[in-house]
Design goal:
mainly alpha
Length: 230
């Protein structure tokens, strides 16, 4: 008796959600770290954060402990900062002008300012994190991906990094989500290709034998004709 399909089985829509998470947690987060480094090099961060203490918004305890550890100073390189914290810092300590609709709001589609693109990445991240479903429809996936990719292209231009993160976004768009499974199928294809080669060689060998037999038969028939004189 066949088992019923699990309601949690992987689908194209769940793959969409996973792929979008990889996009946001990978190149998008690294890109925002690059923007922060542009305005505040890590070596100057302790001084800058103390100077802007009055502009610091309400932070969670983990965020506060990270950037203002008690009894010491922050010595990281921004690799331990996630999108929410990066957004807070970019918004509050980097003197980046707000987009036309203001920080914290959806930017106008035509607004390609630095703050608008940072905002788009924050909004896309929140859409994924706060979703009640582990799946993402093709339509929603394409919309989010297109919006984020455009923001990444603009941010690459700001960073003058030769489209570093745009290339990574395009790579992730079609990169495998299950390399072990893909390797299995690649190996199966390799085996089948090898078997096809062997089969073709055998068929070719048989064809040669048939051709040789036909030639021999013609020789015998010609010889008999010469003997009998017919």
């Amino acid at each position: 008796m066949a088992m019923a399909a699990s309601p949690y089985a992987s689908t194209e829509e769940t793959t969409n959600a996973c792929r979008t998470c990889r996009l946001l947690l990978g190149p998008c987060t690294d890109q925002l770290r690059g923007v922060l480094r542009h305005f505040v090099p890590p070596s100057t961060f302790p001084r800058v954060i103390k100077q802007n203490i009055s502009n610091r918004p309400r932070l969670t305890v983990p965020q506060l402990n990270l950037i203002l550890p008690r009894g010491s100073t922050y010595t990281g390189n921004y690799e331990d900062m996630d999108i929410p914290l990066l957004y807070i810092l970019l918004r509050n300590i980097c003197s980046i002008p707000p987009h036309t609709n203001g920080w914290g709001n959806d930017p106008d589609p035509t607004d390609r300012s630095l703050s608008a693109n940072i905002e788009r990445i924050r909004i896309a991240r929140n859409q994924c994190v706060h979703s009640s479903s582990p799946a993402l429809s093709n339509a929603d996936f394409n919309t989010i991906w297109s919006t984020v990719r455009s923001a990444v292209v603009d941010l690459d231009s700001f960073l003058h990094n030769r489209n570093q993160y745009e290339r990574e976004v395009d790579f992730l768009r079609h990169e495998t989500m299950d390399p072990v499974r893909d390797l299995y199928f690649i190996e199966e294809l390799r085996i089948q290709a090898a078997e096809d080669t062997i089969t073709r060689e055998r068929v070719h060998g048989l064809e040669c034998k048939v051709e040789e037999m036909a030639k021999n038969q013609n020789v015998r028939e010609n010889t008999m004709l010469q003997i009998t004189g017919k």
